[in-house]
Write a structure and sequence with these properties.
- It is a single chain.
- Strand 6 and strand 7 form a beta hairpin.
- The longest helix has 22 residues.
- The chain is mainly beta.
- Strands 2-3-4-5-6-7 form a 6-stranded antiparallel sheet, with no helix packed on it. Strands 8, 9, 12, 13, 14 and 18 form a 6-stranded antiparallel sheet that branches.
- Helix content is 7%, strand content 36%.
Length: 299
C-alpha cells in the first residue's frame, strides 16, 4: 500500500523604608525603631485579623491516566454508516456506527476511542435521510441510548451544499461546501464548425502520482463566502482534494460519505473506511492524520 504523503493567608510581603530624621542619640533612634515596628505590627493585625484557620496543606498531585485530547484527535479508522450525537453533557460524544449485520452493529466514540460491540439497529419507520434506523446501546459508563436516531449527515454528491462553516467572534465567517467534483471547461469545435464550451471531469490520477483513483472524477472541498454573513477579514477561498487510500480497492478515495458540523469551527468528514476531523477555516486536520492526503487546487 502506498504511504500517504497540528488561604487563607496572602503570601505577599511589604517592604518598609525609614525616612532619615534628626536624632538625639543612639538609644533614641533604637526606641523610635521599636515603636515604629510595634505600630506597623498593630496596623497589620487590624487589617488582617486572625481567622482561626490553619493554612491548608498542599495536596500531592496524583498522576492522571493519559487520555486523548478532544482538540487533537483528527483520525479514526472506522467504516461509518451513521453518526449519533450525544450532547446531553460536556464534552459532547460523537458515536460512529457501522453498517448492521443481522440487526447488530458496532459503535466507536470519536474522541475517546470507546467501542461498543452490540448496538441494536431497528427500522424507525421514517424514510427521511439519516432517520431510517434507530440505535440502542449502553456505553461503559452506564449511559443508555434507547432508540436514538442518527444525524442527517450523508453528503449529497448530486447537490453540493454547505455542511460546515467558520464563525468568527465578530460575526463574520464562511461556508465549507462538499459534494462537488473537479472539472474543467474547454472550447471544442463541432463537426458543423461551431465552437462550443465543453465541461468534463478532470482526470484525478495525476494528483496521486499516476496511481488509480476510486472515482472517475475527483471530489473537492471548498471554503467559500457565505450568503448569510460577511466574510472574515483576509478570507481567501480554498479548494482541496481530501483523499485517503482504500487498501481493499487499491485506489485513492476522494468521495465524502458523511459530514457533521461540530459547531466549534471543526467538522467530521467520513470516507468509506475512515473519519477525519478538519478545521473549517482552511480544511486542514486538527491533529495527526497520517492517512489523509490533501491536494491544493488552484481555481
Amino acid at each position: 500500500m502506498p504511504k500517504p504523503a497540528r488561604n487563607d493567608f496572602d503570601g505577599c510581603c511589604a517592604a518598609s523604608r525609614t525616612e532619615p530624621r534628626v536624632s538625639a542619640g543612639r538609644w533614641s533612634r533604637l526606641a523610635a525603631v521599636v515603636i515604629a515596628g510595634a505600630v506597623l505590627a498593630a496596623a497589620a493585625a487590624c487589617a488582617n485579623p486572625p481567622t482561626g484557620k490553619r493554612p491548608r496543606a498542599e495536596a500531592t498531585p496524583r498522576p492522571q491516566p493519559p487520555s486523548p485530547s478532544p482538540t487533537t484527535v483528527a483520525e479514526r479508522d472506522f467504516p461509518t454508516a451513521a453518526i449519533v450525537l450525544d450532547d446531553r453533557g460536556a464534552p459532547k460524544k460523537v458515536w460512529l456506527v457501522s453498517s448492521p449485520s443481522q440487526g447488530t452493529a458496532q459503535a466507536l466514540e470519536f474522541f475517546s476511542g470507546e467501542r461498543v460491540a452490540d448496538v441494536r439497529v431497528e427500522p424507525s419507520g421514517s424514510s427521511a435521510p439519516g432517520k431510517g434506523w434507530t440505535y440502542s446501546f449502553t456505553d461503559r459508563s452506564g449511559r443508555r441510548y434507547a432508540a436514538v436516531r442518527a444525524l442527517p449527515s450523508q453528503v449529497d454528491t448530486d447537490q453540493p451544499s454547505a455542511y460546515a462553516g467558520w464563525d468568527g467572534k465578530d460575526g463574520t465567517g464562511h461556508d465549507v461546501v462538499l459534494g462537488a467534483t473537479l472539472f474543467e471547461r474547454k472550447t471544442a469545435t463541432g463537426p458543423d464548425g461551431v465552437a462550443k464550451a465543453v465541461t468534463r471531469a478532470v482526470d484525478p490520477r495525476p494528483f496521486f502520482g499516476g496511481q488509480p483513483a476510486c472515482e472517475d472524477a475527483a471530489y473537492v472541498a471548498r471554503t467559500q463566502a457565505s450568503s448569510s454573513q460577511d466574510s472574515e477579514p483576509g478570507f481567501v477561498p480554498r479548494a482541496k482534494i481530501l483523499a485517503d487510500y482504500d487498501a481493499a480497492k487499491r485506489c485513492w478515495n476522494t468521495q465524502p460519505i458523511h459530514a457533521v458540523n461540530l459547531e466549534d469551527n471543526t467538522f467530521l468528514l467520513a470516507t468509506r473506511t475512515r473519519v477525519f476531523r478538519l478545521s473549517s477555516k482552511d480544511l486542514t486536520p486538527v491533529g495527526a492524520a497520517a492517512q489523509l492526503r490533501t491536494v491544493d487546487i488552484k481555481e
